[in-house]
What does this fold into?
Amino acid sequence: MTTPVLSVRNLTVEIPTRAGLLKPVDGISYDIAAGEILGVVGESGAGKSMTGNAVIGLLDRPARIASGEIHVNGRRIDRLSRKELRRSRGKEIGMIFQDPLTSLNPLLTIGDQLTETISEHLDVSDGEAKARAIHALEEVGIPAARDRIDAYPHQFSGGMRQRVVIALALCAEPSLVIADEPTTALDVSVQAQITALLKRLCRERGMAVMLVTHDMGVIAETADRVAVMYAGRLAELGPVRDVITAPMHPYTDGLMQATPDASEGATRLRQIPGAMPRLGSLPPGCAFNPRCPYTQDRCCQDPPPTRDVTDGRAACWFPLTEHAAIPA
Amino acid sequence: MPLDQNADPLVSIRGLTRIFDVSKPLLNRIVERLPKRLLTAVSDVSFDVPERTTYALVGESGSGKSTIGKMVVGLLNPSEGEVEIEGINLASETDPDKIEQVRSDIQMIFQDPYASLNPRWRVRDIITEPVRIRGGETDGLAEKLLEQVGLSAVDAIKFPHEFSGGQRQRICVARALASEPKLIVADEPTSALDVSVQAQVLNLMSDLKDEFGLTYILISHDLTVVRHMADRIGVLYLGRLVEEASPDALFTDPKHPYTQMLIEAAPRMDGFGREIVPPEGEIPDPISPPPGCAYHPRCPIAVERCSQERPQLEWKGQSRVACFLAE
Amino acid sequence: MTDKTSDLPQPAAVQRPSRFKELWEADLVYNLRRSPVALVSLIVTLILILAAVLAPLIAPTNPFDPASLNLMNGFSPPGVPNAFTGETFLMGTDDQGRDVFSTILYGMRISLFVGVSAVIFAMVLGITLGLIAGYVGGWIETIIMRIADVQLTFPSILVAMLITGVAKGFTPPAYRDEVAIFVLILAIGLSDWVQFARVVRGATLVEKNKEYVQAARLIGRSGGGIMLRHILPNVLSPVLVIATISLALAIIAEATLSFLGVGAPPTQPSLGTLIRIGQGFLFSGEWWILFFPAVTLLGLALAVNLLGDWLRDALNPRLR
It folds into this structure.
């Protein structure tokens, strides 16, 4: 078996607070292979963005990686010094943020920002860096890239700006890209353009992509595999088609049912009762047990093991396929 | 325009237009010799909302949907055209009793549940404010409403920060119900919420509609959300209605190319590996919209005429469409 | 599913912690407990305020009662028995035999009274104008904020001197001493309202676009009602920070004015007046007449200022 581009093992992030130790990410393991898009889905507070930030070493203090290992291309990176980490960020790992406006420096032309990143990570001449910058812009579909390279971010529309952000994340040719809600701030029509672009680049370059989003529809259309997170833990991991059509974790199931679908008429939406518990007051046992329609005694006592949530497995004592007959 | 199929709509909107002055300050304009910059956010929008129905306004950013909502509730004055609620035009009515009557019949639910509740007030005071201000009786009102929206009576003494986003939105719904309104304008009521909580709030809203005989104007950027709630959907593009139809008609047989694009581009749960041809271009600058049909630069079927002449919204069967090429 | 009450069953009513425990655990108090500097400043400030308030009870003598003064006690060094009377004074005495410790306690009363009153005056004025400017906008805002801009171009001590001077010109000489304190309050307050107005206007501009304000407009609340009931409570925390730092500045401003001779009259000497009096004896060896009032002023201003700094950090959510 070839080495996966990203391999996360038992990653736990802790935040010490007055109320005690919070674990926004609790024992998560997954791999992403080259050319694969892993969707990480969950509601706000599920820890999906925190996972991405932990991988690139951008955790804000006092959050810290408490245990676990992160390997990129077989090299362990969670123990690297800040300097080494900064070098591998950008070169090995590219990052695409939600808000294209704040992820570009408004005072520099996009050409400057691109060439700076390129020269920092690749050993090329200034002219070569500029040529690469123009190429990067062309590749993300910015028309007249040669002329627009001297423009400032505010001269671009929202969708074009997100393309520039993608060009910036990809210009040093990283093997792993973490995209944190890359389309959430965009309109539907532009969202379709950006997801199509991401898919094409992933395929052409054989990059590994970690796509963090709350939108199941975007995951279904874009991702190859999906990791469902709930309250900092992995609920379910598997190929996207399996997870969406035959979810094993009751939370995944509820999430699917609650998502309004264009192909259905005016039916009443299935709802998951309650809300995700705050990290400081997780219930004992499975974190989903107060909202789960299938809760049994065991769910309220022991947390289901998250350690061996691998493809096609769910962190659930009573996965749905085994008792699918129980009516809601 | 024969809009009056139902004789007596609760809300009747005719030729509604709103122009914003987005010029720089006067001094800058004189020094820099800039012309005045006017943004037409809403342009000649007309529709009716019959009592006890849900009318949905759908559009992307810059479509003017929120501006229409604010004009309906009276937070903004129209530049042209009128909003009539129960036959009364708030902008021109002079009888204070009638104005008061209509005002208490309209309520609004906002998008951001974190900004729409005063953080320094207790929930009871927030919910009963619309009644208190008119000198009404408020004993036990907050508790009753809290239970009606699925919270508990003891929550009345708490502060907003003790609630999650979904619970706050329920409090907003309770406040909107307090003055026993007939019409509630909901501006993206669930777009700040998580999927599972969104379903709760949408279901709550449809239950309350049946229970209290409410009329909704639902504003959203998300066609799929709207499909579950609306009796009629109006699709907006750059401040104009481009299509209006019932949800089934709109989804099974969208007539305007823009509507078709919106439906096609929306991500689907069953769209595994779906490769769509991504839509062309982006929404143009509303300060200088394209001539003719505003959608023509992005439209795959546009013809010469589309760039010269603006299509009017016309009846095509049970729908209204603004497109020369619509069947 | 038909049930509407879909939220989690509420856990059985938890016992609310006692009032004291709640206060002890409150964020601000917790923050204070963990900041030694702030804690010391708070204690110093409280001791000084308490000492000033209770001056008549604590002070060994009443320095303003001519009957209790003995000129023979003049120029007693601190802690050394007087050569003529054998009395000992903790901080020595001045030329007229007044106990410096007592004059400091009484002087602090004046300083604090002027400082606190001036800040309250500036606060009320600044908040009112700031709220109106921010909420109403238009030309009213332009006028208020331009006045503020103009005032900011003058050093505030100059503004205060100007006001004091003008006020003195209008008061008959017989009443000058009586009104001097209030002129001082007016002068310092008027030179200080600008920062309150600016901060409140800024915060109001943010709050007024929030949806809860729109909701209040929608139900027909008047502009005044919205400003007072909705916006004001939400803009108070930055005001609190400025008020604390302003207090330190106001105390210093008062001392400066008094030192320059345009502030508190010699019949009601504040810390500034005492420093001015003491300054005359500095080079003749009676250092204590200047030294102790000056150190007290320094301690008071520093403690209040540090408290304000800490409060700013504690109330700023971004720094937490």
